[in-house]
Each structure stands twice: as structure tokens, then as C-alpha cells.
């Protein structure tokens, strides 16, 4: 590989690579440092991506593919994903190709080039352990087959490169090994067992912070400046938090493929597949049910400026400006009374609410509606809904 | 002590030791590395057992007793427990006795021999600090008197060597010192106070993760491969988790002497003395009350395939296939209405339900029954019970 | 500065300093080691106080002011706070002044002298980095303007030098930077972003435990011997915990400017500004609302020997000996029925309860009353209040 001298030469090289019959633009790609098993040295436990690319930077993708092929590797562009170890040849090929950009690759500019430069420095200083660095390509959004591909997709979700529920993670639990985590370091349970006697007697048994297939969001993701996560265990990798979201450490939890699309105060649980909109408030201990827990497989979206009171449970989608009072549970089958006056006020901000003869409405009937206040009327002693006094922000983009 | 050459010689030695008048088989024993006080250097703060023996391996117990006596120690077989420091003589005596097994002591075989071999290596490399290693015997299951004995019993619970509620831990809170934990390292609060000025000004104040008498389960116990604990603080040492149990990090907690007897999804609280059966689900924020909190001292067992909905509270034992809907509290005194048809269906899967004239049943009356679904009827506006649609697995072993 | 020889000389020096026209006794002062930004090296991220003084030790304050002025600094006694870097001159001046006390400054005696001695040792060993050590004075309890002043006030709260709600923290969120915490070490998010590629590829990305403006209580405060905090994330710096308080790791949380005034079992949430009295019990998942969440700005105080049941929600102040049953929500607007007999029994232990004609009472009407038991009557199917059977401890100091 001779060194590329100009950006025009670089573009020509990229075009030449892309013209090859088996070439295909990846939907996502990136280079990761992987953690390998202590006992099963070929088992990937975790992939750490300093940068992922998602439907972007195809020039770098082309260079990486060519660099692999120059090292004798074949990129499986006809498969859904392709994962390859990186060696010195790969780094040298990529650096020679990126040469016109190396001088200006700082800060937010040419980040793939920065990755290669950093790799070269590390390789020169410390050598490269076989299999420590991987380049990962995704060509189709189907079931991920490798640990590296699962992580690439989790990064895509957590860095908001794809919307929540916008990517296929089927089978991820089968692909990821269950490991003990000592902070950011994954450790095989079997290795701990085999070494328990020596580790414990020598006082070097590791401090285990969790046992799970997934790492924590904060092990991999740097949040926005105005986002707060008061305890790392409360947000799983693969969650998505919009800027300004605050996650308190009481009873809260945000699972993977769940999260917020605007600044939200989170003091309760956002289960897998649930989404909460801007200005809403998930009160202390409130539960938003997930697709596996009581919603009949219907994922729950909560609109904007909606309040879930402390210890409430929400099993239906809600629109904007709703309130569930503290301690109430509103599930698909929950029956709520709405008087005539309230029905009219609710109809004024919603389409599609058909009047019920007996005045009772099932939770599922009210799914996704705006401006509903769920209350327990302690005089009539029944669950009622009225028009909430919360503002409904008409947001064309979302409605 | 001369080296034992054959397994027959070993057996003869064991028989000889056991024939001594004061000998007694221990119910539990093991060797621990202990953490001592930073200020009170004689105060044991924690005991780390690489292996415990529970009604098993009496040959090793006999050798350890003889090894102690060869070092001039007297094992108090007439007491409930006996704790002794280990020195080089002890190690040499034990190794000489175990000689026929040393060569094959690897993996899961002859683990007590592995402990002694490892101790010898550590002692040769680094010497033995007085009091760092202890051998601990339990002869009776009464109140534990030493930190080491409490830990041995907590290990017995957490490694499922004894069933939950199957061991005496009375007075354990009085025996264990309250310490600051920096990860797995216990630190005396008084030492922190005395050194606060220097630690803080020099930037070496330790990162304190908890202050408690008990350590965390994961500091000492390696879970099964399919068990997950997403946050270490959520399970106290002395809890017992059957394989396949998952503990989520939201509002969950499993106290000591509490846990699961089969694969359970835990997103709520299992208080001390509470037990949950296979296939059951403790929903997000659900609370199972403990003997000290609202159950009049009656410990709560939950059967198999039972669901505690999100933010529900359970203060009575439940059988198999029950449901408490999200947000409901069922305590001993809670009155629930059951209509005649439902009573018949519930009677079909339970014995002992006597018909109430007014249709109301106290929680305590329904304690331990199968197939009950606790719901809030939002038309009649009352708490009702019906026959749940959950399958009741008839399990001879358990019923 | 010549060395002071006697305590009389010391007192004379202090009087001379205090006689200066611009001198003023500070309400609080102390010396801190501060953590500075990795990227913005002038940004203070955290202040670590080995000792704070609050309306006390004015002699030390005078010496510190004089020491600063001897170094050419001007202490802004006419401002609400004044923060100054410490150099060798400061240390030498202070030590020379404290000379009569240096020999006896150990244990609990002369702690400001201990601070200076320790600083001198550290400075001699390792030098002093510009800006690493600060002396902080507060002259007025108004909005804090510096990170150092916010921390001094948080220490005053958490060390119970001032009562809860007894100090001005307005604007503290604006003053504190939002940072990533790796244990006790604050790290700028922007620095992480700039170094993400190198940190991740080299395997040295830090283990981030939270992202917040506030540190955790246990990073700075040593609790009493009988106080337990089972998970550090559950108590924010600025909370106040009376001796004997236990904080469980399930759904609990104690925010800053909130806490306990006696031994309390905490398994739920004590929101900012809420206070709980001796012998009370905040049940698993119970929520005490804060001024920003449903109490119309009225801070909630809970008296002594009061029980908040599991998953209950409390939005009104409660007196002594009250009970909210598991799962109930009592807010300002909640209507509760009280029958005539119960009203009389409640009036016997409270003044000011006016009889309602329809038998219904709003939560706000019952605010702060003693001996009330909030229950859901499952026969009448309504929320009721009765006279609780809990003892009401008449405590002159508090009532």
C-alpha cells in the first residue's frame, strides 16, 4: 500500500473499493477493543467502541474493508455482520490511506482517523494481542450473531443513532455471556470458581459489582452535560436518555431499548421498550410496564408533560399532559368512570373517544389519549378520569 | 508428624482421631482468611471462606482437629463453636496427613486439601500474619458467638447447604461489628474518624460503598451460570438464590435468610425470612413483608408460578398460581370479597376454605391457598378474589 | 511572624486581630483540599473538608484571616463568603501562632491545629500545588457563590451543625458543575469526551459510578457507630442522619436537606426538605413527597413513632404515633372519612380538629396531627382514619 497524498487520491481509492462487485455499504461499523475470557480465551466478554458509525462515513468503511482484504481477510458483505481481528497490516494500510487527513484529525474531526492513529500508537508502545482489537460491520438489521454486533447495536441505541425500538436485538440474550463485573471488567463465573480458593486466601478476590449479560450504560456512554444519572446500576447499556434527563437513585431503572426522548425526571421504572416524552415525570417508585410484564405485548409510550405519581403503575400508552395520581394502577383492563362533562372536555383534546353508556371506560380504550387525569374519587369511592389541568403542547413532529 | 503414605494409612489416622473421647463431628467447619481491625487489631471484621463443609468431609475435620492439638490448641468440642488461629505447624501437619491426596487435589476433588496446599504456598511466599487464617468448627446450631461462626452460617445459607430458616442466627447483629465497606474491604468507623484529617488532606480517603454489619452476597458467593444480580447491593450475604433467579436493580432487595427456591424474577423486596418458589415473579416495587414488618411474626412463603404485581404488598403466605394485581396490598387483616362461584372454583384447588356468610374473607384466612387472584373490582369498587387463570403445578415434594 | 510561646500570647494575638475594623466572626469556616478539572484546570469540582467550624473556634478563624493577610490576601468580610488559596506562608504563620497548642493537638482536641500540622507535613513531603488547598469563610447565610461554599454548607447539614432546612442553599445547582464520578473522584464530562478514543482503546476508561452535581454522603461523612447505610448511592451529600438510622438498599433514597432527627428505619424515599422523627419507620417503597413534588411547597415533617407502610405515599406532615397503611396515598387533597367516635379519640390527642358535617376530612386538614391511622376500609370500601394504637410520646421539646 503506498501512501495516499491528496484528498482526491483518497476519493479515487474509495471509489475504486466501492466499485468492487462484492462491496456493500454497511449500516453500521466500528473498531472495538474487546475483553476476552480469563478461562476461555476465545470467548469475547465485552466490546468497547471508542466510536461507532451508523449510516455514515462510508469512505472509512471502504478503507477498512480494503485494509482487511490486504491482510488476507474476506469481509462477508453477503452476511448480516462481519467481525475481524485487527493486525499491524490493517493499521498501516488504513493510515496510509488516511494520510491526507491525519494532520487535521483532532477534536470532532475525522474521528475514524483518530481511532487508527491511536491504535498505531498503542500498537507501537505495547504490541497488539491477537484478537484484542476488532473491526465490526453490520450489513443487515437482523438478529445479531456475535457479542461485537450486539454491542455495536447497543451503542447505536444509547448514542441515539437509531430511535428506541428501531433496531433488531432478537436473540441478544443468547449471544451475550453472563459474567461477573468488577466495575467495568467482565470476569467469567467459571474462572472465579476455579480460582476461588487462591483468590480468597490471598485476599485478591475481586470486588464484584454485578452479574449480568449486559454492562451498564455509564461503562460505555458519556451523557450530555445536563443529564444526570445518580447511580450507574440504574441504567442498562442499550437505554437511550435525551439531554436533560435525570435518573434518581431510589426505585428507578431504565432497561435497554427504553428511555426518554426529551428531558424527563425519572424516579421510577421504564421497562424494556417503554418510551417517555419531554417534560414528563416518572414519580418515585412509579412503574411503566414493559412488553413482557402486563401489557399484552403492546409497548408503552408516554407523551410529553405527563406525570406518573409516586408508586403509580402505568400499563397503557398515554398522550400529552396526562396525570396518574400517586398509588394508582392503570392497566389495559382497568375500568375508569368518566362523567359526561369530563368526557366532553377530554373529547376536545382527543379524537376517537366513543361515549360509553354506563360511564365506564377500559384502560385500553383510553390508550394514548391526551390530557387525562386518573384519580381515585374518595367520596364516590371509585376510579375516575377527568380532564387534567396540565398543558398539552401541540407538537407537530410528534403527533 | 510423619507423612501419611497411603489412603489406608489416612483412614486409620482419621479413625484414631475420631476414637478420642472428646472428639465430635462438627456440623460445619472451614478455614477462613479474616480481615482484622485497622485500629483494634484483635477485632475480626470479616471472614472469607474459600470453602465450607456442612455435615460432610469429617475426615478433613478430624485431621484439622488433630493438627490443632499438635500445635498445642484444644478444640472445644463441648461448646457450640471453636475458632483457632492457624500456624505453620498446623499446615505442615495437615499436609503430611493429606499426602496421599495432594497429587489429585484439583478442580472439584479434595477441596480441603487444595485449601491447605494453597495456604502452604502463600505462607512460604509471604509468611503468615498471626490471626490472619482461622479454622472454625460449629458443633451445635445455637446462637453464634464469634464473627467467624456467623460468617460460616451465612455461607451455609447462601451456598444452600442449609434451607432458608433452617439455621440459628439469633444474636448475629450483636456479634458483627458495624463497619464501613470500601468494596470488599471492611474499615472501622473509629479508624476513619481518627485518620479523617490526614486521609482527606492527602486525597486518600477511601471510597466507601456502604456502612453495615453484613457484607454483600457477591463479595463471598459465586452464583450459578444462569443467575443474574444486576446490582451487588441488592442481595445481602446470607440470602439464598436458586439457579436461574434474576435480581433487577430498580426497587429490589433480598435480605439475609430470605430468597428463592427456584428460578424467580425479582424486581421487588424479599424481606428477611421470606421465601419465593419456582417460576414466581416479584414485580417491580412489590414488597413481601418480613417477620419484623407487619406479618405478626409469621414468615411469608410464596409458592410456585405466583405473580406479585408491580407495587403490590404481600403480607400473607401464598400458594401456587396466585396473582396479586399491581398496586394492591394484601395483609393478614385485609378483607376480600369472594362470590359464590369463585369460592367453589377456589375450593376445587384447596382444602380448608370455609364459606363465609357475608362473602368477606380475611387475608389470614386465605393464607397459603393456591390459585387465588386478588383484584380490585372497579365497577363494584371493592377488593375481590377469584380463581386465577395461572397454572397450579402439583408438586408432591412441596405440597 | 514570630512563634507564639504561651496561650496568653495566643489570646492576645487573637484579640488584636479581632480588634481590626474590618474583622468579622465567620458563621462557618474550614480548610479544604479541592479537586480541580482535568480539562478546565481552574474549575473546582469538589471540596473535601477534613473539619468544618460552625459558629465556633473563632480564635482559629482569626489566625487564618491574619495568616492570609500576611500572605497579601484580603479576606472579604463584607461579602457573604471568601475563598483563598493556601501557600507555605499561610501554613507557617498559622503554625507559629498555634505553637502553644501543637504538642497537645491529638484526638478530639485542637482539630484546626491538627489540620495545619497535617498540611505542613504534606507540603514538606510533596509540595503544594497552586489552588489545591483552600480556606473558606462564610460571613452570611445567603446564596452560596462558590463550589467551596456550597460544600461547606452541605457539610454543616450532614454533620448536623445546622438543623435541616436551617441554611440557604438557593442556587447551589447553578454553582456545582455536573461531573462523572469514578468513586470519589470527579471527572469532567468534556474531558471524557475528548479522551474517549484513547481511554477506550487503551483499556483505561474509568469506571463511572454516577453523573451528578452532588457527591454521596459517604464520600465525605463518617456516620455514627450505630448508623447503617447499606448502599452509598442512597444518601446524597447534604442529607442529615441521626444516630441509629438505618437506610436499606431497596427503594430508599434520602436527598440533600432531608433526613432524620432520631433513629429511623428507612426503606423508602425522604425527598428534599422532608424530615422524619425518632422511632418512625419509612416502609419499603414508601414515598415522602418533597416541596417540588405534590405538596404545594409545604415541606413534610413526620413526627416520632410513626409508620409509613410499604408503598404508601405521604404528601402531608404527620404528628407522632401515626400510621399510613401499606399501599395508601395520603395527599393534601385526599378525602378521608372519620366517624364520630374516631373523631373524639383523635381530638383527645390533638387540638384544632374541627368536626366536619359530612364526616369527610381533607388530608391538609389533618396535617401534623398525632395518632391518626389511615386505612382503607374494605367493607365500606372507603378511605378512613381512626385513632392509631401507636403510642404518642409527649415530647415537650418538639410539641
Mean pLDDT of chain A: 95
Number of helices of chain A: 9
Class from helix and strand fractions of chain A? alpha/beta
Q: Can you name the CATH architecture of the largest domain in chain A? A: 3 Solenoid
Using the coordinates shown, work out and report the CATH topology of the largest domain in chain A: UDP N-Acetylglucosamine Acyltransferase, domain 1
Integer count of domains of chain A: 3
Q: Gyration radius of chain A, to the nearest Å?
A: 25 Å
Descriptive terms for the model:
homotrimer; 399 residues; alpha/beta; Alpha-Beta Plaits; UDP N-Acetylglucosamine Acyltransferase, domain 1; 3 domains; five-stranded antiparallel beta sheet; 26 strands; 25% helix
In short:
In chain A, 25% of the residues lie in helices and 21% in strands. Chain A has 399 residues and is of the alpha/beta class.
Amino acid at each position: 500500500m503506498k501512501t495516499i497524498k491528496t484528498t482526491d487520491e483518497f476519493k479515487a481509492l474509495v471509489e475504486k473499493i466501492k466499485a468492487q462487485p462484492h462491496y456493500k455499504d454497511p449500516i453500521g461499523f466500528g473498531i472495538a477493543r474487546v475483553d476476552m475470557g480469563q478461562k476461555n480465551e476465545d470467548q469475547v466478554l465485552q466490546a468497547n467502541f471508542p466510536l461507532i458509525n451508523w449510516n455514515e462515513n462510508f469512505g472509512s468503511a471502504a478503507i477498512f474493508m480494503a485494509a482487511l482484504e490486504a491482510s488476507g481477510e474476506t469481509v462477508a458483505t453477503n452476511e448480516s455482520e462481519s467481525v475481524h481481528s485487527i493486525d499491524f497490516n490493517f493499521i498501516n494500510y488504513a493510515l496510509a490511506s488516511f494520510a491526507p487527513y491525519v494532520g487535521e484529525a483532532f477534536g470532532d474531526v475525522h474521528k475514524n482517523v483518530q481511532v487508527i492513529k491511536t491504535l498505531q500508537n498503542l500498537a507501537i508502545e505495547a504490541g497488539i494481542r491477537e484478537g484484542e482489537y476488532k473491526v465490526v460491520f453490520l450489513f443487515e438489521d437482523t438478529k445479531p450473531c456475535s457479542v461485537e454486533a450486539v454491542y455495536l447495536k447497543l451503542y447505536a441505541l444509547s448514542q441515539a443513532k437509531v430511535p428506541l425500538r428501531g433496531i433488531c436485538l432478537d436473540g441478544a440474550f443468547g449471544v451475550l455471556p453472563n459474567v461477573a463485573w468488577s466495575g467495568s471488567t467482565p470476569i467469567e463465573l467459571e474462572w472465579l470458581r476455579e480460582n476461588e480458593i487462591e483468590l480468597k486466601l490471598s485476599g485478591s478476590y475481586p470486588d464484584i459489582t454485578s452479574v449480568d449479560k449486559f454492562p451498564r450504560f455509564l461503562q460505555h456512554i458519556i451523557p450530555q452535560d445536563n443529564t444526570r444519572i445518580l447511580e450507574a446500576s440504574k441504567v442498562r447499556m442499550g437505554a437511550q436518555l435525551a439531554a436533560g434527563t435525570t435518573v434518581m437513585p431510589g426505585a428507578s431503572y431504565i432497561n435497554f431499548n427504553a428511555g426518554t426522548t426529551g428531558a424527563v425526571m425519572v424516579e421510577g421504572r421504564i421497562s424494556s421498550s417503554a418510551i417517555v416524552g419531554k417534560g414528563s415525570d416518572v414519580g418515585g417508585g412509579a412503574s411503566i410496564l414493559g412488553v413482557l410484564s402486563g401489557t399484552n405485548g403492546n409497548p408503552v409510550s408516554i407523551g410529553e408533560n405527563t406525570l406518573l405519581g409516586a408508586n403509580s403503575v402505568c400499563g397503557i400508552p398515554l398522550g400529552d399532559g396526562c396525570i396518574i395520581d400517586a398509588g394508582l394502577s392503570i392497566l389495559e383492563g382497568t375500568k375508569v368512570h368518566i362523567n359526561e362533562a369530563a368526557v366532553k372536555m377530554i373529547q376536545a383534546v382527543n379524537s376517537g373517544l366513543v361515549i360509553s353508556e354506563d360511564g365506564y371506560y377500559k384502560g385500553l380504550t383510553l390508550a394514548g389519549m391526551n390530557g387525562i387525569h386518573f384519580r381515585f374519587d374518595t367520596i364516590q369511592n371509585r376510579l375516575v378520569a377527568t380532564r387534567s389541568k396540565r398543558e398539552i403542547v401541540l407538537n407537530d413532529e410528534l403527533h
